[in-house]
Amino acid sequence: MNFTQAISSGFQNYVNFSGRAARSEYWYWTLFATLVSIAASLVDHLIFPMMDFSPLHSLAGLALFLPGIAVAVRRLHDLDRTGWWLLIILTVIGAILLLVWFCMRGTVGPNRYGPDPLEGVV
User: For 14-62, what is each residue's pLDDT tens digit?
Assistant: First the structure.
């Protein structure tokens, strides 16, 4: 999956918490969300230099929050783990564990959450 396909999939599956997401989909989505956040912050500082509140950055964060959670849950499904594991991000050790998991290859072949998203990809 390339960058544009991952972004398209992220928005098409905006609130889809079922199925699986490959590593590329998750990391391209994370890159996209980071770039949008940086761009929104820069535009906020250019347009509203004296404001402590960043309206564009806040709107971008709200718009990308739910699809970000959905792609993270689907990424956990690819590792054959329930999406509830995402709650361990609330601890420092849990955030490190999730980072390690998100870097791992998903389950080869189908698992209880659906078919392998890399099946048929060379």
Answer: 899 999 999 999 999 999 999 999 999 999 999 988 888 889 999 999 9
Q: Which amino acid is at 57?
A: H
Of 56, 104, 45, nearest to 80 by C-alpha is: 104
pTM greater than the 0.85 cutoff: yes
Determine whether 21 is exposed, middle or buried from the number of CB atoms within 10 Å of its CB (0-12, 13-18, 19+). Answer: buried
What would the two tokens of residue 105 be?
């290859």
Cα–Cα distance measured from residue 40 to residue 104, given in angstroms and rounded to the nearest whole number: 31
In whole angstroms, give the CA distance from residue 121 to residue 67: 24
